[in-house]
Design goal:
Helices cover about 30% and strands about 25% of the residues. The protein has about 375 residues and is an alpha/beta fold. Strands 1, 10, 13, 14, 15, 16, 17 and 18 form an 8-stranded mixed sheet that branches. Strand 7, helix 8 and strand 8 form a beta-alpha-beta unit. It binds pyridoxal-5'-phosphate.
Length: about 375
């Protein structure tokens, strides 16, 4: 399956079995919790519809950032609840949410007012967000009790789930984790005891350091794990499978003499007689322009170093130490042979950014 006709072999292979496997792992970790499969940003670059299909059996709801992403899933025929993690931008979205069973997060006053003033055909399920310390979205903890009462008493609202989001769940020792958890527990203690709760993203779900207490009433919101990455980088690696393999062909090979430079800005200079391979992938495909010399690329069974500035459509790698190489050979930028986490580390970014930035001109091939 590929989206149209493509002669350029550069592509992202998406392993739907890996997605399914990772979702099963997430399901296992979540225990009695309900599980939200977070597939915002086009399923972290893997294709939202295809990911939704693959993880269907393991999740109780999907999570997206905003309404347009949700409507794509409804257009594709998915009927599960979909949570809008940023909530609504305007009151015009509320009737659409009611009609399509989209569940908005309510994180600030204007969103609350819009719901209280709306007249809807069906009541909304809403997610009330508490700001327990990340200071990005959410009502202050001391406001939650009053806001939740307003929502509960509103005929436009069918159910309220109280949620929060951790800023440092991937860092076991970070003192803010405990503080956020304490504040969330206080918030929960002050709202109706039977309230449904949601605190955990992937890192909090996998972290041994965070005790999320009574999980039975909770929702876990898991994204990155579905795609094969453990953001907590624990000693004991989880048996997750990378879902994306990003590939590009070698389109030229040349010898470069000592002292000659490669690429824009002449940022890499040959210190020995060198062989340079040019690959058909660049920053317009989502391979970051700021990737430094030495960033690993997997080619013919070994890792070779990036050599020279990333261009729009191409990169260059030092293949001097490679025994066999021909034009047409394929390099893996990340995937089963080269962990996206390792590449992210070399580039000074995170796996989330690498995966979500693979651009539209890179065809996704599903298997
Ligand atoms: C994106 C997002 C998640 C998923 O985070 P992962 O680290 O990918 O598991 C969970 N909750 C919220 C509010 C998010 O925005």
């Amino acid at each position: 399956m590929s989206n149209g006709l493509h002669f350029r072999p550069t592509r992202a292979e998406i392993d739907t079995d890996a997605l399914r496997h990772n979702a099963t792992m997430a399901r296992k970790h979540a225990g009695h919790c309900k599980l939200m499969g977070v597939i915002k940003a086009n399923g972290y670059g893997h294709g939202a519809v295809e990911v939704a299909q693959a993880i269907n059996g393991s999740v109780d709801a999907y999570g997206v950032a905003f309404i347009d992403e949700a409507l794509k899933l409804r257009d594709a025929g998915f009927i599960q609840p979909i949570v809008l993690l940023e909530g609504c931008f305007s009151e015009a979205e509320l009737p659409v949410c009611a009609h399509y069973n989209l569940q908005p997060v309510v994180h600030q006053q204007a969103q609350l007012d819009a719901i209280l003033n709306a007249r809807l055909v069906k009541p909304l399920a809403v997610w009330l967000k508490a700001d327990t310390g990340m200071h990005r979205l959410g009502f202050a903890p001391e406001q939650i009790e009053a806001v939740s009462k307003q929502l509960e008493n509103c005929p436009q609202v069918g159910s309220v789930t109280v949620m929060t989001h951790f800023a440092n769940a991937d860092r076991h020792q970070h003192p803010l984790n405990e503080r956020q958890l304490d504040r969330f527990n206080e918030v929960c203690a002050r709202t109706t005891p039977a309230r449904t709760l949601s605190a955990a993203n992937t890192a909090a779900l996998l972290s041994s350091a965070l005790d999320l207490g009574d999980k039975a009433s909770q929702w876990c919101r898991t994204g990155i794990m579905l795609y094969g990455v453990d953001p907590t980088k624990q000693q004991e690696a989880l048996p997750l499978l990378p879902a994306m393999r990003l590939l590009a062909p070698v389109i030229a090979v040349r010898e470069v003499a000592v002292g000659e430079a490669v690429g824009y800005g002449s940022q890499w200079v040959a210190e020995r007689p060198s062989r340079i391979a040019t690959l058909a992938i660049g920053y317009a495909d989502g391979y970051p322009r700021h990737a430094p010399n030495g960033t690993p690329v997997w080619l013919n069974g070994v890792e070779v170093p990036l050599a020279g500035t990333v261009s729009m459509d191409m990169i260059t790698v030092d293949v001097t130490d490679l025994e066999h190489l021909e034009v047409g050979d394929e390099a893996e930028l990340w995937g089963p042979n080269l962990a996206v986490a390792k590449v992210a580390e070399a580039i000074g970014t995170i796996t989330y950014e690498l995966l979500t930035r693979v651009s539209e001109r890179v065809p996704r091939h599903y298997k």
